[in-house]
Write a structure and sequence with these properties.
Layout: E1 12-16, E2 21-26, H1 38-53, E3 58-63, E4 68-70, H2 75-79, H3 84-102, E5 108-112, E6 115-117, H4 119-125, E7 129-133, E8 139-141, H5 155-163, H6 165-174, E9 178-179, H7 180-186, E10 191-193, H8 198-208, H9 217-225, H10 229-243, H11 252-264, H12 279-284, H13 286-303, E11 314-318, H14 322-333, E12 337-341, H15 345-362, H16 367-375, E13 377-379, E14 391-394, H17 400-413, E15 419-422, H18 429-433, E16 442-446, E17 456-461, H19 467-479, E18 483-488, H20 495-511, H21 516-526, H22 532-539, H23 541-552, H24 560-567, E19 581-583, E20 586-588, H25 593-607, H26 623-640, H27 647-658, H28 667-674
Parallel strand pairs: 2-3, 3-5, 4-6, 5-7, 6-8, 7-10, 11-12, 11-14, 12-13, 14-15, 15-16, 17-18
Antiparallel strand pairs: 1-2, 8-9, 16-17, 19-20
Helix pairs in contact: 1-3, 3-4, 4-5, 5-6, 6-11, 10-11, 13-27, 14-15, 15-16, 20-22, 20-23, 20-26, 21-26, 26-27
Length: 678
């Protein structure tokens, strides 16, 4: 191999082999991950100039960082764009540069190890070949839609051409990632190889002269048909897919992606400014600005715990109910040994069975990995694991005396430096800590249900909680890949403190005669992931009654219908009926007679050519604003009372803890925007 070329590049390294193969590695200076900043892109253009002057036989593009291939464009730079012209220039620079890469006469190959996101994948798509390394960290995605923008550097052109429009649009509209094996199955990668042979494989493919991957004959015929009526059919289906999840008013980007692919060949620069799918419309949309804000809020939460070197190996969870069992399962998934305590093995068994299903989904049916993970989750009815654990989490029922008795016992058996944590959702830490000889050991680690899905965990500081205990608890939350939110001990902390008044106001509307479906439709239309009445049914009506007075404020009485339903044993999803009927864990909604008959009645009506239910009544003006008002007020109150440090953290907590409409940038950001002139 020849010596490295002389070069004055800051971020790129070029070396040539005697075979004629050139290796180009990205190593962004002063950064832990590679991003395509303007400086990196400008330098890449100079690299291509040098290669034009002395073309290699083939070029392999790889990362010199262990953190991954390329994380995408530089979000910080994107956040600072101050005009539509600047945005168009950013898109044009990437589009033309990657078009130049795609037009090179010699073979090019992207060797992808680790994350390959956004602009990083668009760079890889501009190469003739792609090889992915078969490791858990290898993920490929075009997640621009999550930021309210579109993949404008060639992704909307090249991904549909490579893997077919249906699969490509699905990836672009959801922003979801694929692992190495799926990338190979989709045709996104030419090969999937172990790390030990990745360089050899890249060398063989790049120098082998094999034609670039082509779609199979059937898919080529389909692509040909895409220039006719089939193209509109696929586009309409994709729009319908997007419309089932979001509205164009709140989230214009997914609809713009479909439009740009269908009408403009994937080139966003060709879309006239008057088109609602234009770059001008996308970049001036409040949604794009707010979703970038949400990204920064998420990064701020991720930064908590970075100063902690706490690396727990053993976690002991007390309480094998849905919450405790799922906490234990998530810890086992992250490689920790977990002992799960309850009164008997029979009480623990359902949690183990539920964990096995979770492990099977996460490990994609790999029986060996499922078994290894299950081996780390140990039933422990006698609680013997508490003496060895680095973290002990209490997740029993909300009873102060029971929790006090449990912690008195745990403190006596635990290691002196073990973190003692409660998952309480409504009790004050100070009241629980009275049972401890050393109250400074107690911290709150409050998860949300369903634990495997919801990213936020409130890390609760009581009046006596030691700073080092708090730091360790926050570090633990990051180790299990959750987002820690520091909060002070107060009724409901942040998330439940804002949800309680919100759900109560929704139930008051129902009490006044507004149909539950109408209340829920109003809030879903606003952008909430689930209506508040359905949320009450999902949480459990008995839990809503128990927590209602504490979380909704003084003098707040539960609605009469809520008390009546609980008295009849109609507790929502878990009992099969609450404000709605539930069949196989799925809610049954509707305002007509068929809704009362359930799923079977609706199906029979459709088979007979009749509508499944009557048209839903119109949503009364101001209904969403009325139901949201107590949530917004409670969020502001939590900031004023110091439950969270500032408004940004309040917005982050409510977004990631409740799913509050991300396109608004959070409840307090939404209030601020409403107060400004258009």
């Amino acid at each position: 191999m020849s010596a490295n070329m002389q070069q004055d590049w800051k971020h790129w390294r070029l070396r040539r082999e005697d075979t004629g193969l050139a290796w180009l590695e990205l190593d962004k200076a002063d950064a832990s991950a590679n991003v395509l900043s303007s400086e990196v892109m400008s330098e890449f253009a100079r690299v291509l100039d040098a290669l034009d002057a002395a073309p290699p036989k083939a070029l392999v593009i790889a990362s010199a960082k262990p953190a991954g291939f390329i994380a995408g464009a530089d979000i910080e730079e994107f956040s600072r764009l101050d005009s539509v012209l600047a945005a168009r220039m950013l898109v044009e620079r990437g589009w033309l540069l990657f078009k130049r890469l795609a037009a090179l006469s010699y073979p090019t190959l992207a060797l992808i190890r680790g994350h390959c996101m956004g602009g990083g994948l668009e760079l890889a798509l501009a190469c003739r070949y792609r090889i992915v390394v078969d490791e858990p960290g290898t993920k490929l995605a075009l997640p621009e839609v999550m930021l309210g923008i579109v993949p404008g550097w060639g992704g909307m052109l090249r991904l549909p051409a490579l893997i077919g429009p249906a699969a490509a649009l699905d990836l672009m509209l959801t922003g979801k990632s694929v692992d190495a094996k799926k990338a190979k199955r989709l045709g996104l990668a030419d090969d999937c190889v172990p790390a030990r042979v990745m360089e050899s494989a890249a060398r063989i493919v790049a120098l082998g002269g094999k034609p670039a991957r082509k779609l199979p004959v059937q898919e080529r015929a389909t692509r040909w048909a895409m220039n006719g009526p089939l193209r509109k059919m696929v586009a309409d289906k994709a729009r319908a897919q997007a419309a089932r999840k979001v509205s164009r008013a709140n989230y214009p980007a997914p609809f713009a992606i479909v439009d740009i692919w269908e009408k403009y060949g994937g080139n966003a620069l060709d879309v006239p400014a008057s088109d609602p799918s234009s770059l001008d419309a996308i970049f001036t949309s409040p949604t794009a600005r707010n979703l970038v804000r949400v990204f920064h809020l998420q990064e701020r939460l991720k930064a908590f715990g970075k100063d902690s070197d706490f690396a727990p190996r053993h976690v002991h969870v007390v309480g094998a109910g849905v919450m405790g069992g799922d906490i234990a399962a998530v810890c086992a998934l992250r490689g920790m040994t977990v002992t799960l305590q309850d009164q008997s093995v029979e009480r623990i068994a359902p949690a183990i069975a539920r964990a096995a299903k979770l492990f099977d989904r996460r490990h994609k049916g790999d029986a060996k990995q499922v078994r290894f993970t299950l081996d780390r989750l140990i039933p422990d009815p006698k609680g013997e694991g508490a003496a060895r654990a680095d973290v002990i989490i209490e997740a029993i029922f909300e009873n102060l005396d029971a929790k006090r008795a449990l912690f008195a016992d745990l403190e006596a058996r635990a290691k002196p430096d073990a973190v003692l944590a409660t998952n309480t959702s409504s009790l004050r830490l100070e009241d629980i800590a009275t049972a401890l000889k050393n109250p400074s050991r107690l911290v709150g680690i409050h998860f949300f249900n369903p634990v495997p899905m919801l990213p936020l965990v409130e890390v609760v500081q009581g009046e006596a909680t030691d700073a080092e205990v708090l730091r360790r608890a926050t570090g633990f939350v990051r180790r299990i890949d959750k987002l820690p939110l520091p909060v002070k001990s107060a009724p409901g902390f942040l998330v439940n403190a804002v949800l309680g008044p919100y759900m109560l106001e929704a139930l008051r509307c129902v009490e006044e005669g507004v149909a539950p479906e109408t209340v829920d439709a109003a809030l879903v239309e606003f952008g909430m992931p689930m209506g508040p009445v359905e949320l009450v049914d999902t949480v459990g009506l008995d839990i809503a009654v128990a927590a209602g007075k504490a979380l909704a404020g003084e003098g707040a009485e539960p609605p009469a219908r809520l008390l009546k339903l609980v008295g009849e044993g109609k507790l929502g999803r878990k009992s099969g009926e609450g404000y709605y009927r539930w069949v196989d864990g799925k809610v049954v909604k509707g305002t007509g007679k068929d809704a009362a008959k359930g799923l079977l009645g609706g199906l029979l009506s459709r088979l007979r050519g009749k509508p499944a239910s009557e048209a839903p009544p119109p949503i009364p003006a101001g209904l969403a604003e009325r139901v949201l008002a107590p949530l917004l007020a409670a969020t502001r109150r939590c900031v004023e009372q110091g439950v969270v440090a500032d408004a940004d953290l309040a917005d982050a907590g409510v977004i990631f803890g409740t799913g509050f409409a991300p396109h608004t940038g959070g409840p307090l950001n939404y209030c601020e925007s409403k107060g400004k002139p258009d």
